[in-house]
Amino acid sequence: MPRLLLAILTLCVFSLVTVNAQSPTPRPKPPAKAPATLPPLDTGELEAGAKFAIARPLNWNGSVLLIAHGLRAENEPIVADLFPDRLAHKTLRDEGWIIAKTSYRRNGPIIADAITDLENLRAHIANTYGEPKRVIVEGDSMGGLIATIIAEQPPGDFPKYHGCIAVGAALSAREPNGTLGINLGTQLPLILLTNRSELTGPKAYVTPLTPFPRETRTVQPVLFRVSRDGHVNVNQHERLTALRALNDWLDRGPSALPKPAEGTEFFDATHEPEPQPSLVTFDADRRGFITRVTEVTAVYGNVAIDAQPSDFASTGIARNAWFQITAHDENRRVMYGRDFSAVKRGEWIAFPNADGFFWLARNFENAAKTADLKVGDEIRIRAYDKDQAAAPTYE
What global pTM score does this model have? Predict the structure, then answer.
């Protein structure tokens, strides 16, 4: 082999060995970062004793959703019961929104002071975290009336609020000895999300029959229909639809709103929940099952369970039938009904909610307190045998 070729080959081999020898040993990849933990709820008290709860995101985008709750009995606790893990609010929080709620300073019919308490909550957020870029008010029932009245207030050069959503708005409600009510003069984008059984009032608000000065209404409100009976009987997908639509309206104008189907007057926001795989554990004879408590409402003590209509059907428990629940070794008789009107005062009722699961409650009483139920507790549900007595139990 010629000396020159041999020298070149030797040099190449030496270079390859040198490079390999000097190459660093591959380091193991660092472990994946654990998901960032959301800040805990901020709670406290505003002026006049109104309590508040604030759910902050990891990175605030400057947007705030204020929640105006509905009528509460005067003898119930004054609490700001915020549920940030529910789909609509969780989605906004994940996108950078602050979600906040106030108890108001008192229970019972309250409108003017409730609006002041919401303004105080907004001011607290601005002073604590910075001036918001966008503030939306979402209210249910009496809170829907409050949201509507807020939407009728002139925004001014530096608006406190930018839009409102009124769910099942109790538009005819009044505060005793109060003078504050609706005037039809909408000044902010307003969506009324309403069940089909309660369309009359919101429809009259959106398209009033009585003429009034058009200059008093600078923004035309819109009505979203939910094709389901009930009062505030809407699910999280339907709430999210309204929130998305309102934000699109604020970003791009009313032309961005979803259009009603041909031949219909109002956009139908109905989202029927799809059945999910069963989460319950059936008894061997399929006459009952074990379900778990997923939520307890702080004010009324209604109990959400992870059972679905198909679970009840599998055990032979039909609507308008009584069945038995067992919790903490105590038995109680419960009616599978449509809503609270199916039973007498003090009796137990179970009915499907708009999200496809069930509420377990007592009519005008606190079910969670009665049965000492909390989130995560197990409840056994059993169909009554034909020859088994189903004596009523109210405690």
Answer: 0.84
Per the DSSP assignment, residues forming a β-bridge with 195 are: 226
Q: Which residue has the tokens 């109905």?
A: 270
Q: HSE on the CB side for 50, CA within 13 Å?
A: 24
Q: Do 204 and 178 touch, CB atoms closer than 8 A?
A: no
Give residue 189's identity as a one-letter amino acid code.
Answer: P
What are the φ/ψ torsions at residue 184 (nearest 5 degrees)? Answer: 70, 0
Q: Can you give the residue ranges of every domain in the chain?
A: 42-268, 281-383
The per-residue pLDDT for range 153-166, each reduced to its tens digit, is 999 888 999 999 99
Q: Give the pLDDT confidence of 77-118 residue by residue, as tens digits.
A: 999 999 999 999 999 999 999 999 999 999 999 999 999 999
Give tens-digit pLDDT for 168-219: 999 999 999 888 899 999 999 999 999 999 999 999 999 987 666 666 889 9
Per-residue pLDDT, averaged over 281-309, amounts to: 95
**pLDDT of the residue at 14:** 37
Yes or no: say if 118 and 51 are a contact pair by the CB < 8 Å rule. Answer: no
Sort strands 190-195 and 222-226 into parallel, antiparallel or unpaired.
Answer: parallel
Distance CA 125, CA 46 (A): 11
Superfamily holding 281-383: Bacterial fluorinating enzyme like (2.40.30.90)
According to CATH, the topology of domain 42-268 is Rossmann fold (3.40.50)
Nearest to 56 by CA among 64, 68, 44: 64
Structure tokens at 154: 């002139």
- Residue 382 token pair: 């059993």
Q: Are 136 and 165 in contact (CB under 8 A)?
A: yes
- State the Cα–Cα distance between residues 124 and 56, nearest whole angstrom: 13
